[in-house]
Amino acid sequence: MAAVTALPVSLSARSFAYFTVKDRLPQILTKVIDTLHRHKNEFFEEHGEKGVEAEKRAISFLSKLRNELQTDKPVTPLEDELPDAALWNQYLDYQRNLSNGNGEPSWFQSPWLFVECYMYRRIHAALAQNPPIGSFDVFKEGKAQNFFESQEAIIALCTYFQELLKNIQDLDEKQLQGELFKLLQVSLWGNKCDLSFSAGEGSSQKSSPLQCLEDMVPYIIVNDMERLWSLLINAKKRNTDKCNVRVDIILDNAGFELVSDLVLTDFLLSSKLADEVHFHGKSIPWYVSDTTKNDFNWTIKQLQSANHMWMSRCGINWEGNLKKGVWVYHDHMFWTLPHVYSSMAEVAPDLYADLQKSNLLLFKGDLNYRKLTGDRKWEYTVPFHQALNKFHPAPLCSLRTLKSDTQVGLKPGQGEQIQASEPEWMVSGKYGIVQFDATP
Ligand SMILES: O=P(O)(O)OC[C@H]1O[C@](O)(CO)[C@@H](O)[C@@H]1O
Ligand SMILES: [Mn+2]
């Protein structure tokens, strides 16, 4: 991988990133250790002494990791033999070359994106290397709790949606557009509910997700919903039996956000704006609340068996979509590598080629935005297309609330104006974007 010269510097642990690395990441590690402690009896019941020994080894690995982080030790090569280890270690070499002999990559000196991803990968190694507790998801409880605490909001959304389905065939184009915009916004604001941001403290959707959409429109600082609509409606009009419209959604958090994404994608199918939807989740537990295959299936099962007619109707329909093959779940190790998306074509050509088959890629959440734009200190007015740095498998759109200090594609003066009244605007999660790029 050649060193990049013409791009702005990477965000490193010196700004907002500094507080994340200094405070949030150690807090997350402490919580993970605590979670393992609390499950000791369960490990014993399931696996006997072997389970307890594995738990002890995982805890000592994680304590060592926390110490390395807090004392700004060099980031060391991975020593496990998991399938992605070689790619990680190559990336570490690349970081070494970038630092031009200015010392080893370390927690507070290296790019924030890299060290943060690296921490989650080491957490995974702590478990994966220690059978019989190798597949224990240390973040599962938090994700489930977010789902249960968002119960009211999920009921409100499922009820609204099932009512909408009753007469969806009778909606004219304008009405269809209005409904799409609503569900896009629910999915956008659903991204407030991630757990790495609050270091694993609760962050669920408490109020009805549909009620305050109007009031929140001014906080959507890039709003390309009209362009998204044009793409979808034109694709629908051109659509013939031979050529299906495929939408891909690169998922972010489980819990309320996932339900909001599933409702959005059900709407795309039910309105015939799309014929098939492909979901992309994480193959290992990631950034506390990100969706894995287990979370995806668990969520649909929970909905199905819920004691609420419209919730369970959603769950039953969605299971049906999976069985019929109009919903397809994928995971690929690339999504949990530290690489930015402009290197996908080189690092994961199979994934890139798969995404090229899509008519529209929806990228959910802040981390996806950081990887789309290379997590760099761009000027606010730099076009999104430029920041994507040649990543363009298909038309794409980011739905993201701002939780890290990078943002492109703003109008001249727009960023400075918000900054003047709200210094925290880039990291508070209060602002959002629906940012689209169609140009190859
Ligand atoms: O779930 P999301 O929206 O990708 O957010 C994850 C976010 O959590 C944080 O990593 C916290 O460190 C963000 O700043 C990051 O981008
Ligand atoms: Mn996330």
UniProtKB/TrEMBL annotation:
| InterPro entries, per database record | ARMT-1-like_metal-bd_sf, ARMT1, ARMT1-like_metal-bd
A GO molecular function annotation here is: protein carboxyl O-methyltransferase activity
Q: Which domain of life is it from?
A: Eukaryota
Q: Which UniProt keywords apply?
A: Hydrolase, Manganese, Metal-binding, Methyltransferase, Nickel, S-adenosyl-L-methionine, Transferase
Cofactor dependence: Mn(2+); Ni(2+)
Q: What is its EC number?
A: 2.1.1.-, 3.1.3.-
Damage-control phosphatase ARMT1-like metal-binding domain: residues covered: 20-418
Recorded catalytic reaction(s): these are: beta-D-fructose 6-phosphate = dihydroxyacetone + D-glyceraldehyde 3-phosphate; beta-D-fructose 1-phosphate + H2O = D-fructose + phosphate; L-glutamyl-[protein] + S-adenosyl-L-methionine = [protein]-L-glutamate 5-O-methyl ester + S-adenosyl-L-homocysteine
Q: Name one GO biological process term.
A: DNA damage response
As for what it does, the entry says:
Metal-dependent phosphatase that shows phosphatase activity against several substrates, including fructose-1-phosphate and fructose-6-phosphate. Its preference for fructose-1-phosphate, a strong glycating agent that causes DNA damage rather than a canonical yeast metabolite, suggests a damage-control function in hexose phosphate metabolism. Has also been shown to have O-methyltransferase activity that methylates glutamate residues of target proteins to form gamma-glutamyl methyl ester residues. Possibly methylates PCNA, suggesting it is involved in the DNA damage response.
Entry's free-text remark on domains: Subfamily III proteins have a conserved RTxK motif about 40-50 residues from the C-terminus; the threonine may be replaced by serine or cysteine.
User: Into which family does the record put it?
Assistant: Belongs to the damage-control phosphatase family. Sugar phosphate phosphatase III subfamily.
- Entry's PANTHER family? DAMAGE-CONTROL PHOSPHATASE ARMT1 (PTHR12260:SF6)
Q: What is this protein called?
A: Sugar phosphate phosphatase
Give the organism, scientific name: Gallus gallus
